[in-house]
Amino acid sequence: MPSKTRKPAADAPATLNGLHHHAPGAGRGAQRERIGNGGELHQEVEHRGKRDGSGEGDGVAHLTDNFGHRIADNQNSLRAGVRGPTLLEDFVLREKIFHFDHERIPERIVHARGSGAHGVFECTKAIPGLTSASIFQKKGNTCPVFVRFSTVAGGAGSVDTPRDVRGFAVKLYTDTGNWDLVGNNIPVFFIQDAMKFPDLVHSVKMEADRGFPQAASAHDTFWDFVSLMPESMHMIMWAMSDRAIPRSLRMIEGFGVHTFRFVNAKGESRFVKFHWRPLLGMASTTWDEACKIAGGDPDFHRRDLFEAIAAGQFPQWDLGVQVFDEAFAAKQPYDVLDATKLIPEEDLPLQIVGRLTLNRNVSNFFAETEQVAFLPSNVIPGIDFSNDPLLQGRLFSYLDTQKSRLGTTNFHQIPINAPKCPFHNFQRDGLMQTLVPTGRANYEPNSLAAAGEDGGPRACPETGFTSFRGDDEHSSGDHQKLRVRAPLFADHYSQARLFYRSQTANEQAHIASALVFELSKVSLDAVRTRVLSRLRNIDEDLAARVAKGLGAALPPKAKAAREPVDMKPSAKLSIQKNAKATLQGRKVAILFAEGSDRKAIEGLRQQIEAAGGNVALVAPKIGPLKVKGGTLKADGQLAGSPSVMFDAVASILMPDQAKRLALDGACVQWFMDAYAHCKTIAHCEGTKLILARAGVEPGEGVVPIEGFMSVGTARHWAREPKVRDLA
Length: 727
Ligand code: HDE
What we know:
The chain is of the alpha+beta class and 727 residues long. Helix content is 25%, strand content 16%. The chain has helices at 91-101, 197-204, 220-228, 233-239, 287-296, 300-310, 326-331, 366-370, 389-406, 494-501, 505-520, 525-538, 540-550, 598-610, 655-661, 665-676, 688-693, 708-711, 720-723; strands at 31-35, 43-47, 114-123, 142-151, 166-174, 177-184, 254-255, 260-263, 269-278, 316-324, 351-361, 383-384, 587-591, 614-619, 625-627, 630-632, 636-637, 648-651, 680-683, 702-704.
């Protein structure tokens, strides 16, 4: 059998940040590289017909699998003999079929059929008085855009010319982030509230039981629904008009539909409606034409757009805005937050503020048009939402839908979706993570920069997106949109103090010890000091104890955002003050050995079990061991059953066994630990020898075996100062 050789290409194309992608269908030897890490500018670099310099291939890139292994034969699968079975080891075949099997992703639930193109947006009139959006600050400002036109009801493979609304979704890659204006070619909508959207879409899509009609509203369920939803009648007028059978995507208007907000640098806001006006003017077909086009060229609109752009006949639209204030809104006989209403231009003329030009076809339909993810929630500083309940619902839906369509929360890393301005945050990991953020700053606040590390990005109160608070009667007082916390939330210490002061003395000691242990592991001195300075607001004594435990100087008290108050200690907050004297659910180990008194062991076991406790017999050997009165098998071997596994220990041993066990480190440790952990130790006379070696002093909780039941499994905290420094 021929052996496969996997020679690495000595002159493999350069990769940046380890990211290298062979763009399918991008032409001879096309390779695409993405530059970008943790928010740097994402760029795409195309290398067409790049020679690999090996002398092979005549300028054509070598065919490889997805891991770079060159493929010798792309025609035949690997088989055992000329007519033999195909071999499972054929990784070339397996990968090819595997990838092919998974080429499709879920189509959009609405707007599945779409055509996209790249272009540019240019501000033609600066409107800084209206909005602080950077793109509108200066005439001549430009940004790249991607536009996707779509029908609504049909599937991804449906025809271009049904009677339907056309989606007009624009993604503007501005220098302050992506702004997605996800509109339609009709200025109003069927419904007023997002709550009805699934019903609307269900009704217009193929009927659920029969799977037809495709891409058509002319059927029972749609008309049943709209006949019951009078709010849809305005939109029905538009949908039955020639607007719904356009001649070309280049000849449709676009509308943001909802009322949005402009917010200027002073924080003043006005309402705004967005309009796209085609420079070619509007044109429609007749219904008969539309039907015939569907047969003659199902891709009529997609082809028309593609060919026009390829021929340099770049379609263009002006961006117009209708800007108005609350007073204007209040005077209208309709609600401007109702998406089934428009504002007649005779009442409020458009101001033209920009121009959109589509000048580049997509290079790959799937990578761009299919994977583009529009989010109405993508707004930039200077543009904000209104309370339109339809818009509010969309703000959730589009983000959510991308997870289902693109499969990962990292869909923003797909080149068509990534912003073209830098982006930095503390989001990490997730399916299909392609960025490789460095450093350990994946949370904020952090003080890592002070320690010379990369502390990551920080919020920018001056230039960051700030939601408009609201200034109408619905958004005053408690209804204002704010990112604040109520004043009493600023008390961070009173209840920390309450908790600490409600503990018993040794519980407090445990807290102090825990803090000493944890902070001793912290290598950043400033962090340790900061914690100490905060502890002083909780309890000075605690802070001093911890500082002493660390051998550190007590720093000045941190300034409290709100001075703590003394609350009355609460006994309920202590474990020890609420401990139950019970054997229920507790586990007691009885240590025995050969020769031990079986009756005594069984007697103790019965008493413990009768009280709801569990018993484990532990012995140096598992047995069955010969004991006085028969044989006994241990549940656990001594070295493998350390006393930490039990709530209390007891031992019933013959003196000569005890003598031997006193020399056994595991046995001595068994008692030493039980003692150090303040557990009950019930012992027979013989065991005393071992106890002495383990440093177990007679006293609270160290009782003769007969006294076990009166002590039970309580912890004997009074013993603690003898086994641990609690200062
Ligand atoms: Fe959409 N809409 N929509 N819609 N819509 C989607 O998002 C939704 C609405 C529009 O080319 C989906 O990414 C809800 C109005 C366009 O990729 C989904 C509501 C307007 C596109 C979704 C609406 C639109 C979509 C499906 C009512 C005009 C295609 C895939 C609250 C202003 C974008 C996706 C593209 C796509 C939800 C109403 C326009 C499911 C819940 C009104 C142009 O998220």
